[in-house]
Design a protein that fits this description.
The chain is α/β, with parallel strands linked by helices. It is 41% helix and 17% strand. The protein has eleven helices and twelve strands. Bound molecules: zinc ion (2 copies). One zinc ion binds next to loops.
């Protein structure tokens, strides 16, 4: 007679081929933020097939979904899936593995439904992490209001239980100048592209004086129509990140000042555009992490220390500010593979990715089981969350 956790492990092993097929399908059909129509449908269909009651398009977000299994009055534990891809480089963040490890954890729990303690399991599909703030919209839509704890994993080049996330705010600058022939009448023009270039130069100087853990990086989104026309319109956007929200907003102000200075120097007109909701830092929850760690060890995964210099941002940070939530990093690529790279995109469908997906699915399912089996742990996670406010 196997224990319930052994049965969870066996269920994931049994489902592994289907999960890998699904992971590859999502990987090979990359869809950008809020356009993840196929991925959301495939995952919803899969979970419905495992016995979940699936709501498609929750909180007014068409490509979000919520799949629920209810076994009586008890805690609500959420397992989150992401499935959006990046422009130009596809699934270079490995969200196909996040999606199928979440769906796999749900499926494994559904397979042991007869033995589950009372409560509610929700596999929640959260679109648009790479920009667009899908989880922010779901928070605003009340999706997490009755959730007691949430977990998800993210692919990486090693296993790390808690990796800090930076807060991020995104800002766009549109400069308007005046067109003129660049050779015949250049003195009649106002060069909007020069304002963009000067903004980058100003930010480069600012960057020397900021704290090492903060990040400011941008791209040019519009740079003129032809070299023989003084550009009358040019634009760029910047991401500003810092571990604390106060410092993030301080830097945001200084980056805007860089653009204002550039506008002044070039005589271009500046319009500042706030681009979508900020992402918040990840609030640590050791109650949930300790459970995850113990279950992870049974799958043979080896934990690495956190890497304070390799920090990104995610809207799971926003979730972690409203309920206890964790996002452990799972190895799906060889050590040293940077994320958002072509190498990581290729790694996200290798045997190593399949292994990480299965270990993650088992670990999340077992951790969910632990929380349902002992609601005292849910209370403890909540108390830790409150104390960290
Ligand atoms: Zn990413
Ligand atoms: Zn990602």
């Amino acid at each position: 007679m196997s224990t319930i956790k052994e049965r969870i492990g066996q269920a994931v092993d049994r489902l592994a081929d289907d999960l890998e097929t699904l992971s590859r399908k999502i990987h090979d059909h990359p869809e950008l933020a809020y356009q993840e129509v196929q991925a959301a449908a495939w995952l919803s269909d899969y979970l419905a097939g495992q016995g979940f009651a699936v709501e498609r398009g929750v909180a007014g977000v068409e490509t979000a979904f919520r799949a629920t299994i209810e076994t009586g009055a008890g805690p609500t534990i959420a397992i989150l899936c992401e499935y959006d891809a990046l422009p130009a480089i596809g699934h270079a963040c490995g969200h196909n593995v996040i999606a199928t490890s979440g769906a796999g954890a749900g499926a494994a729990l559904a397979a042991v439904r007869d033995a589950l303690p009372a409560g509610r399991i929700q596999v929640i599909g959260t679109p648009a992490e790479e920009g667009g703030g899908g989880k922010v919209k779901l928070i605003q839509g009340g999706v997490f209001q009755h959730v007691d704890a949430a977990m998800m994993i993210h692919g990486f080049d090693r296993w790390i239980l808690h990796q800090d996330l930076l807060g991020i705010v995104r800002v766009g600058f549109e400069f308007t100048g005046k067109a003129a022939h660049a050779s015949t009448d250049p003195w009649e023009g106002v060069n909007a592209l020069d304002a963009v270039i000067q903004t980058f130069n100003n930010v480069s100087m600012l960057r020397q004086q900021i704290r090492p853990e903060a990040r400011i990086h941008g791209i040019v989104t519009q740079g003129g129509a032809a070299p023989n026309i003084i550009p009358e319109a040019a634009a760029c956007c910047f991401y500003v990140r810092a571990p604390g929200l106060d410092y993030m907003w301080d830097l945001h102000k200084r980056v805007i000042a860089c653009a204002e200075g550039a506008a002044k120097a070039t005589d271009a007109t500046l319009r500042v555009i706030e681009l979508e909701a900020p992402y918040e830092p990840l609030k640590r929850n050791d109650t949930l992490l300790d459970l995850f760690r113990a279950n992870m060890a049974t799958t043979g995964a080896l934990e690495s220390p956190a890497l304070p210099d390799r920090m990104g941002s995610s809207d799971i940070g926003n979730v972690s500010q409203v309920i206890p939530a964790i996002q452990p990093m799972v190895q799906i690529a060889p050590h040293g593979t940077p994320i958002h790279s072509r190498a990581f995109e290729a790694a996200a469908v290798t045997p190593l990715a399949r292994q990480g997906m299965c270990q993650a699915a088992k670990t999340m399912a077992m951790t969910t089981y632990d929380l349902l089996a002992d609601p005292g742990l849910v209370k403890k996670a909540r108390a830790e969350f409150e104390a960290a406010r």
